[in-house]
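agent> fetching stored inputs for the adenosine-5'-diphosphate docking request
agent> found them:
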Amino acid sequence: LAGVSATAVRAGPTTDGTPGVAPDTPPPAPSYPSRQSLFIVQIAPEMAPVAKVGGLADVVFGLTRELAIRGNHVEVILPKYATLRYDHIFELHEVFHDLWVPWYEAAIHCTVYFGFVHGRKCFFIEPHSRDDFFSRGSIYGFPDDVLRYAFFSRAAMEFLWRAGKHPDIIHCHDWQTALVPVFLYEIYQRLGMNHPRVCLTIHNFAHQGLTGGELLRATGLHQPERYFDYHRLRDNRHPNALNLLKGGVVYANFVTTVSPRYAAETKDQGQGFGLEPTLHMHQVKYGGVVNGIDYDVWNPEIDQHIPVRYGLDTIDGKYDNKRALRHRLMLADNEKPMVAFIGRLDPQKGLDLVRHAIFYTLERGGQFVLLGSSPDPGINADFWGLKRMLNDSPDCHLEIGFDEDLSHLIYAGADMMLVPSRFEPCGLTQLIALRYGTVPIVRAVGGLADTVFDKDHSSRPLHERNGYVFEHYDQAGLESALGRGLACYHQYPEHFRELMKNAMRADYSWNRPGQDYLNIYDYIRDK
Ligand code: ADP
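agent> prediction call returned; pasting tokens
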């Protein structure tokens, strides 16, 4: 089984390919392999839009629907945060009044609610204890976060057990719910819960949930010598710490991250934040699946946020949006190409290269628009300084802040989207840009490398090439890609248009990742 990856387990429907059918013979009816529908439970700390901090929330939201429309029964278990967006939950009602979740030497009384979130079936667990695990002002950021989510993971498993639910698949996410497979195989399997298999998706290796031995007492994982073992939960770098994410990797039946390239980078190229040896040890059950984006939200044909809607056959509508964007940002209306950057102003996103790209684009006869913000006041101040410096330019606008509405207009109006990240597990910006025919200019890392294929230097066929890519994180690297993009726009407009069309034709909806995950589920069910 060595080398199993999302690619290896990917096997879409096939046709029988019968050769030599006589002209008058009607074609044989297509035969689709039938597959059993599955009962899938997602146990997650976030789901858009009710509890969203980052991309994990969008993945749970998008994947849940994709799995359901393929005929599977899907339920989601979430904490009942005080900060939930209750306006997006329909028919919320109590379904399980007395759930007692073992905690230290006693148990915490919980109530479980059910409600629909845009058609998705969701259970919300509410503990009643002085710890007030989820009735707080925000989702994360508390000293007891590890215990809060260890409790949630235990409560979710206790709920499945007490409610008599026996899902085929439990899909959990990040360190917050990485203890789920540990609890399943160490506690609930012994109680007779033999059926479920667990898939763990890691969205971010930077946070792993490190903690001390108290966790074991709290969660009922007695036998510290068993869990403080290098082959179980003991952290690879801090021998006195337990690592929840590592536990998830060890115990889950399959582990994914959000792109095949990032899977390789975390396992082999030092980006696993200490988990590299563990990923190596478990590589036969480790792979990458690129996230999808929600084409109900990100689709220029139906987007309510943009003044002129357009598609592949009406691509000229894009230029009306470009004009509207210039008007909104008070930029000159001229023949220049427009390069954009949308993202968190975080060093991960390659901020020094973004800065260089602004000046380079202006020098090379382009316009530049930036939309971004940072929780770090120092970084914001730097960009405010830059904004003041460029204030008089009719070809540049920096918008420091978070503005989803404006982001739609930028995706629609810009010609190129810059994503020069230092690392990028998956990246949504380039996927959205592709959908809007905005040519991505990206560094070849993580999910960017898996989704953007260079116009001039790619092993892909011409019709799949959809952007410009550079390897080395330096100014020369950036210029090599951005310079070619700007030159093509000026000198070979018809080639540039082909690139835009290739971008729009690519399918980065949940369709394919949905099938990839189902293949993984089938694979672990059969083992
Ligand atoms: P990350 O999860 O590392 O922030 P992604 O590329 O996966 O990066 O996702 C970023 C998402 O957030 C994209 O949908 C992008 O449009 C959006 N976004 C980022 N910054 C802003 C902003 N300042 N205003 C509006 N949308 C933003």
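agent> quick read of the result: The first strand starts at residue 39 and ends at 43.
agent> awaiting further instructions
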